[in-house]
Amino acid sequence: MAQASADELPVCLFIATGGTIAMRVDPSTSAVVPALSGSDLIKAGPEIATFSRLEVHNLSNIPSVEMGPLRWVQLHHVIEAALARKEIVGVLVSHGTDTLEETAWFLDLTLTRRDKPVVLIGAQRNASEPDFDGPRNLRSGARVCVAAQSSGQGVMVVLNDQINAAREVTKTHTSDVESFNSGDAGLLGRVDGDRVVFYRASCRRQHVPLAQGALPRVDIVPMYAGADGALLNAAVQAGAKGVVIQALGAGNVNADLLAAICDAIDSGITVVIASRVPRGRVSPVYGFPGGGMTLKTAGVVFANDLSPQKARILLMLALQVSRPTSELHALFDQ
């Protein structure tokens, strides 16, 4: 069978944003720093040219610690414009792994074009290491991006040949190449050589339109043994419109933090309860001061099984417009 010419191959926009996948060791300092462009990364995976044509857009070259709302919105608009182009079958984004799950979730919530796939990739090891995982993840991500069965799957994260959905995926290890997984939900699928195999579809996707103007400030406040209300009060003083409490267990805090939560709600701040436990949902179970039932009585919103960082993103988007509390509950109950 004759090999397809470059002009006949499916086209993906490849947006490079930085992260470890674009870093190598600076010999003068022995520290890992940004160094590679999107075009450099493609050169490390020449076999991609046999099944896909990647159009490179170098959006940034930053560590993922510098990702945040302003860059999310910028990336959103670049992807929306690309997905509107008839010749583009999908978008591939290289990104640092530390905040990759947050960017993926933001995009899955806000993108209006739902039929074309958006795939985020990264690397756990930099380009100076002999077992650099960047080229493999780029190749696998490109395969998912052009696969017909990826249509309608939403924003996906692909590392170590594993496909995860944006809502459930999280980074679970600081350096292991098999760091990203989806807990109880499990993988969406896997890249198996030159094949893309899906096991399931994500049935809990949501869409919250991106409004004009800056996203409202939402902070995360942790609960820990001996915590008080100082951090929550500081967040309110800093101008937070909403706060996510990284609570204990099924969604519990102590009496001191409960008092601060009540004060915040009384002043018009939306408070969402998530858990520092990586699996399971929060719910109003306990009746002691600060237990979930007393938090429910105080007027908090429970984040279901969303992590604090993902609950923050949903709350930021929800607070772009005025919503009744019942609507907020419905958003987080999905």
Characterise this structure.
The chain has about 325 residues and is an alpha/beta fold. It folds into two domains: about 10-200, 3-Layer(aba) Sandwich (Rossmann fold), CATH 3.40.50.1170; about 220-334, Rossmann fold (3-Layer(aba) Sandwich), CATH 3.40.50.40. Helix content is about 30%, strand content about 25%. The protein has helices spanning about 40-45, 70-85, 100-110, 135-145, 230-235, 255-265, 290-300, 310-320, 325-334; strands spanning about 10-20, 25, 30-35, 55-60, 90-95, 120, 155-160, 160-165, 170, 180, 190, 195-200, 220, 240-245, 270-275, 300. The strands form four sheets. It has an eight-stranded mixed β-sheet with strand order 4-1-5-6-7-8-11-12, with helices on both faces. A four-stranded parallel β-sheet has the order 13-14-15-16, with helices on both faces. Strand 9 and strand 10 (about 180) form a beta hairpin. The longest helix is centred in the N-terminal third of the chain and has 15 residues, at about 70-85.
Global shape: elongated
Order of the strands making up the biggest sheet: 4-1-5-6-7-8-11-12
Count of beta strands: 16
The overall number of domains is 2
Structural class: alpha/beta
Strand residue percentage: 15-25%
Number of helices: 9
Instruction: Provide mean pLDDT, rounded.
Output: 96
What is the H-and-E element order? EEEHEHEHEHEEEEEEEHEHEHEHH
Low-confidence stretches: none
Architecture of the largest domain in CATH?
Answer: 3-Layer(aba) Sandwich
**How much helical structure, as a percent, in the residues?**
25-40%
Distance between the termini: 47 Å
